[in-house]
Amino acid sequence: MTTLKQYAPNRYSRILAYGASRGEVIVHNNDIIEPINSSDEWIVQRTGISTRHRASENQSVTDLAVGAAKDALANAGVEGSEIDAVIVATVTHPYATPSLATRVADAIGTKAPAYDISAACAGFCYAIAQADGLVRSGIASKVMVIGVEKLSDFIDPTDRTISFLLGDGGGAAIVAASDEPGIAPTVWGSDGSNWDKVGMSGSLLQIRNRNFVENPVEEGEKIWPTLRQEGPSVFRWAVWEMAKVAKQALEEAGITADQLGAFIPHQANERIIDQMVKTLKLPETVIVARDIKESGNTSGASVPLAAHRLLQENPELSGKFALQIGFGAGLAFAAQVVVLP
Fold this sequence. Notes:
Layout: E1 12-22, E2 25-28, H1 40-47, E3 51-54, H2 61-76, E4 85-89, H3 100-108, E5 114-117, H4 123-137, E6 142-150, E7 168-178, E8 187-190, E9 198-200, H5 204-208, E10 227-229, H6 231-253, E11 262-265, H7 270-280, E12 287-288, H8 292-295, H9 302-313, E13 321-328, E14 332-339
Parallel strand pairs: 4-5, 4-6, 11-12, 11-13
Antiparallel strand pairs: 1-7, 2-3, 6-7, 8-14, 9-10, 13-14
């Protein structure tokens, strides 16, 4: 009996390297406090953020994605033509179609399959899970994974719920076949009952149907939805529910907290990070990523950007276990333990 040809699977996968591309403009708290009637002290105490990187007028979300991808290729010593798939996690690409990933693929010199996913702050960890599956199934040998956002395009500077948190940037990782396990099983999911806790002020359909003759655009007004959140609700959910997910990810990896070299949580708020560290009872030997202080919350880009900085500042972490977790709008979440490149 004739059977269909099957892919030759790879037993394991691992991350070869990270890459990063940050917004070119450094925005200090004092630059944004007037429209929200706030202070530098209030922002630092509530979030831990002192500065955030935002894209210049000439820097697009595509530029950020391509920059991160090329940096990852250089760090891995891999040619773009070797990439078998490109996955881009973003919620700020200005086009519903075509995908941002196809532009990245072209820019790095591959005609590999390329697609975007929308999972907000969990997007990068979602994409790592997919890349791990593609590699282990044998469909791909090397996958480019990118988390990228230009959130400044969707900020209302007068909004006190989220605008002051947000930054722009792109982070990338190359996932490749490995002889040893480098990515543990992912714990992921969603809580759609809280779908509206983080999101946009309206839909594109509402904007499209607006009568701009009777309601003309005022100077400086953005004519697309801007980001909003219910801060207290999101804080409670992140602190208590995501700590449970992080514990499950450790169990799936078959390790305990004291075996970690690093903890790389979504850079949403330093108070959330501190509470998760406490709840997980992480020992002082575990280095915690705190890229949020300088980069702000970059949504889908925050985990790879934090990992990239962590390895730059602590090269001794190479080869050690890191627990990474992303969570946000949807409410979507994903966590996995990885071996740091």
